[in-house]
Every structure is written in C-alpha cells, then in structure tokens.
Amino acid sequence: MQNEARHNKGSSSPSMGGMKPGNTSSVVIIGDHNPQCSIEEVESATAMLTLYGNLIAGILGAITAPFWGKLSDRLGRIKPLAAASTVILGSEVVMVLVAKMPDTISLNWIYLTYVLEGLSGTFILVMALASAYAADCTSASERNVALGWFHGSMFFGFAAGPVLGGYIGMSDGKSRPMLIFYIALVMRILGIAFLLLFVPESLLHRQARPTQSQAEPKSLRQTLLEKTKFLQMFTSASTANAKTRRDLIALAAVNTIMFGALMGAMNVMLLYSEYTFGWGNKESGIFLSVVNLFRAIASMVVLPLAIRWLRPLYSSQGRHGGFDRLDLLLMRTSILSDIVGYVGYAIAPNGVLFTVSGVVAAFGAIGLATSEASMTKLVGGARTGELLGALGFLQAMARIVAPTVANLVYSWTVARVPQLVFWGVAACFTAAGLATFWARPNADGDKYDFEDAVPLQAKDLSDVE
Questions:
Q1: 146 in Cβ contact with 307 (< 8 Å)
Q2: pLDDT (tens digit per residue) in 9-60
Q3: Under a CB-based contact definition with an 8 Å cutoff, are residues 16 and 41 in contact?
Q4: Per DSSP, which regions of 361-415 are E strands?
Q5: Helices assigned H by DSSP within 138-280
Q6: Beta-carbon neighbour count of residue 405 at 10 Å?
Q7: For 242-282, how does the pLDDT look when each residue is reduced to its tens digit (9 = 90+)?
Q8: Which of 288, 277, 257, 261 is nearest to 418 (CA)?
Q9: Helices 122-137 & 384-413, crossing angle to 10 degrees?
C-alpha cells in the first residue's frame, strides 16, 4: 500500500548511516516509539521540515499580526481574538485530514496548516490580544501580575497537554493518536464559543474611524509603507518623549531576543534529547510537562509573590505604577536563570540533569511577562493594541530568524557538536541581559506620559454614547 510504502521509505535498508544496532524493524508505527528513526538523516530532515514550516508561518504572521493588533483597538479585543482562533481551527482541521487520510491527501498539504497559522497571526497574536485585554482591565501597578497569570495559564496548558494527551492516546493500552487531535478540535471550538458568548469586551465603544473602503485608493508603495508604519511608535515624536522611546526600544529588544531564543531552541531541544538520550514520546512528554509546569509556577506564583515582597523596597519609584527598577530586577534575574539553564542543557550528561536544566530555565518566563507589562505602562490605553501588534511583528520576525538559524545549525552539527545550539541560545540571552542596561526606569518619581487603565467593572458606562 502507498501508506506502508511511505512509512518504509528511507528506513528499509539497515546499511543507512547512523542506524543504531538492534533497530531491526523498518516499519514506522504512527504514535509509537520508532528507534529506527533516531538516525542523523532523519534528525536533519525533520529539522529542515520544521524550518520551512516556521518560515511560512513566521513571514505571514509578521505581516498579519500588526493588522490584527490595530483592528483590536478599533473593534475591541474579543472579535479579533475569536476570528484569529477560528483561522487556527481551520489549520488544525487540515492537519487532522492529512493525518487521517495519508493515502488520499498529500503530505505537502501540511504546509497549508502553516499558511493558515500565519494568517491568524500565530499563537503570538493570540497572546498579544490576551495581554491587551489584561492591560485594558488592570491598572499599571497590577499589570505584571495580570500578564503573569495569562502567561502562566498558557504554560500550564503546555504542561497538562502532553500528560493528558499521553493518557488519552494510550487509553485501553492501544495507541490512538488521532483521538488527541479530535479532542483538540473540540476544545478549540469550545474556546471560541466561550469567547463570543461569555467573555465581556474590555474596551468601551469608541468613535468609529473611517474604514479602508472609505479612504481614497492608495498606491502599492503607500500600502507597503503603511504596513510598517506601526513600528514608528517606537521612534516617532508622538510617543511621549525621548526617554519613553528609548525605554520602549530597549524593552522591545529584550522581549524579542528572549522570545526568539526560546522559539529557536524549542524544536531542537526535543530532537537533541531524543537523539542523545534515546528518549521516546513518553520521556519527551514528561520533560515538556515538567518544564512548562515550572514555567506556570514561575509566572503565577513566584512573580506575584516577588512583586508583593519586593514592592515596598521600590515604593518611592512605583507609586504611580510605571516602569521602575523592580521591573528591571525581575527581567535580569529571569534572564540569568535562562543563561544558567541553557548552559546546563549543553553540558548535561544525562536526561535527569537535562530536565533539571529545563526547570532552572523555566523561571525565565518571568522576563517575558514583565517586559510586555512594562511596555504597556509606557503608552496610553488607546495604543495598547497597536503596541502589542508591533511587538507581535517583532516576535514573528524572531520566529522566522531564530528557528531557521537553530535548525540549520543543528542540522549541520548534529553529527559532531549537537549541543552547539544551546551555547548560541545562552549567548542570545546574554545579549538580552545587556540590553536591559539601555533602559532607564522611572526612578525620579516623575510620571511617564501614559494612560492608567482601570478595571472594566469600574468604568463609567454612562460616558458611552
């Protein structure tokens, strides 16, 4: 059969370079551990497939994320968030069809899932809109904790997903990988329905702005210029003052480098552990669950407690809830944990110490939440969506560059120095740490030119026209 031939292709000959002794079976069993695939050729090909997919999703995400972000300032957060989630649902439907009917649907249709993911703005956009929602409903002084809860919830899902997926996929002692996909589709549909039916809009109704259809026709050059105009908020004179612009650029650099380093190492980390330590799906799932569980703890427990205990020491700088020295301390500490963790990945001699290194690096999640919250403190509430859309563009570009470089380096060095990628990621986090010294927190007690948001329940709806 075509399906069997596809699974046997490239693995039927025991003479392939790097084939480990004892791997006598050439048939690939979907959803099971296949040790005959743990060879250099398969590792390299898998890295390249992921590279192409990330390029497609990253480029499209970089184009669409700013559009979604600015649209959320115009229409509110809920509708764009539900629309982007619906596009992601479409990509998951395509993936299920390809996996369910491999003899009918070409494997190349997987690239359509990356296209749809890119058009949705990717999960980067979903988190950006969720962060904008949190910024709308909280004061600046509470924003670090709110975004920490949002990020922690995401990481908790990453931790629970592999455990639940492994349990469901192996129910009754049988491998049922498709059941996991079906449940994921149902959960996505329920999430979209919950958004539209039960989650209140965080923005009050604003005066309608002219739509694109009401504007005069624009040339292609004007259109392209407008596509990157959103980045001017980091440098334009309309962004408060020079001090605020400098801090925005510094914080955006820190956040983008941290995000790019994390994305670059994510796929290689699993390939490396499976190749070096002989991990299968079970061990990889445990590793992901442990690391993401500690990321959730860092964002949802450690971050709020650190702010509560350390805030009195910085009360003179933080009365107004602006960007202050405590934010910098949290970012630098989290970056240090990332550096130590990724150096640990590179030198870990076994899977246990590799996992311990992941636990140490997990506390770097505090830096992502803190840097995003700090940026929202520097702009008015009316521009939060635009800011996070611009940040989404930078993160999407990081998703293009970082995984591309990481997968290429791993593909070229897997036979000689496979851990080289982790040393490179540690160097990137070091650069992010140095970038924090460019930012100057509001230590003199003067306020930035930003608009403090208040909880949604406290807004006076009588002002709405």
A1: no
A2: 444 433 333 444 444 455 655 555 566 666 777 766 776 777 788 789 888 8
A3: yes
A4: none
A5: 143-169, 177-198, 220-227, 242-277
A6: 16
A7: 778 888 889 999 999 999 998 888 878 988 998 899 887 77
A8: 277
A9: 150
